[in-house]
Write a structure and sequence with these properties.
By secondary structure, the chain is α/β, with parallel strands linked by helices. It is 26% helix and 26% strand. It is built from 7 helices and 13 strands. Strands 1, 2, 3, 4, 6, 7, 8, 9, 10, 11 and 12 form an 11-stranded mixed β-sheet that branches. A two-stranded antiparallel sheet has the order 5-13.
Length: 302
């Protein structure tokens, strides 16, 4: 197996709340995207390949933006997440427009990733330390093939000032192994409280120190087999649901409950920033400028 891990970037999102192709929005001091900084941090942490999960209709835009600048720096590949890309013989409602969620996106890379890999969102800025800690975890000689990891953040450090967000609410034991993760949608700060809307639209308060997943996961190739198995069950159950999504945390939770895998939580005190809404961009630009001014990143990455 390749000893260098791969970075899998989930970049097929439609960006309905953002109102455009936010994956390629330039926020850096020399026109860089958030993705540029993620790849730069991954290279510094020892990653050897980057795989983009995108939609076919944005391939040309992505290649024009990334291919030339990354030549000689890191190997790159592209895979495509489309609604129709499901196991043969499984019908679904033809009115469905959107792909099947983050778990489906990861599954699209099954044939091009044969080494340990990290999964990140294209529009989230995680910081160098997250990549370093995940790369170090992969080097642990005592780790099993079904030992995974995730970078966990405190909820208060992951909110947008411009609207609601979705996060995976996590619980871990004394040895920092995850034992529960639940996808919470519609989380926002209301006054001095942080609340989310439950399945019946009731407001539920969350503690600001709640551990959450920002979709920064570390997996071995064994995870692809689990995904394929679970997805083949998910599709028949949700074939006529136009909005059902196959989430990474849902699969992880099932594997933990079934005692088929373990997930180590790598805690981060960093403050996340990203672009969920158009209004978030100004804050991201300002944060990156501060990091450049502090010497953490060069003014021009490539």
């Amino acid at each position: 197996m390749n000893t260098k891990p791969t970075l899998l970037i989930l970049a097929a999102g439609i960006g309905s709340r953002y109102g455009g192709l936010k994956q390629l929005d330039q926020v850096g001091t020399s026109g860089e995207t958030i993705i540029d900084y993620s790849i730069y941090d991954a290279i510094r942490a020892g990653f050897g390949k980057v795989v983009f999960v995108i939609r076919e209709n944005i391939e040309a835009d992505f290649r024009a933006f990334f291919d030339q600048k990354l030549v000689g720096k890191i190997q790159t590949e592209y895979v495509f997440q489309e609604t129709h890309k499901i196991p043969a013989g499984l019908p679904f409602n033809p009115e469905r427009q959107k792909p099947w969620g983050t778990g489906h996106a990861v599954l699209m890379a099954k044939d091009v990733i044969h080494e340990n890999f990290a999964v990140i969102n294209a529009d989230d800025f995680y910081g160098r330390e997250a990549y370093m800690s995940l790369a170090a975890y992969f080097k642990d000689p005592n780790r099993l093939e079904t030992d995974y990891c995730m970078v966990g953040y405190e909820l208060k450090n992951t909110l947008s000032e411009n609207g609601y967000v979705s996060r995976g609410q996590c619980k871990s034991d004394h040895d920092h192994f995850l034992f529960d993760v639940v996808e919470r949608t519609h989380i926002e700060r209301v006054g001095d409280k942080i609340i989310y809307q439950d399945s019946v639209n009731q407001s539920v308060e969350l503690d600001e120190k709640t551990l959450v997943s920002m979709n920064f996961w570390g997996f071995t190739p064994s995870y692809f087999n689990f995904l394929a198995e679970k997805f083949s069950t998910f599709i028949p159950q949700n074939a006529n649901n136009l909005k059902a999504e196959f989430y990474i945390p849902s699969v992880v939770n099932e594997l933990i409950e079934e005692k088929r895998a373990r997930v180590k939580v790598l805690h981060s005190d960093a403050s996340w920033f990203g672009v969920t809404y158009k209004e978030d961009k100004a804050g991201v630009v300002q944060n990156i400028q501060s990091l450049v001014s502090a010497g953490i990143y060069p003014e021009k990455l490539w």
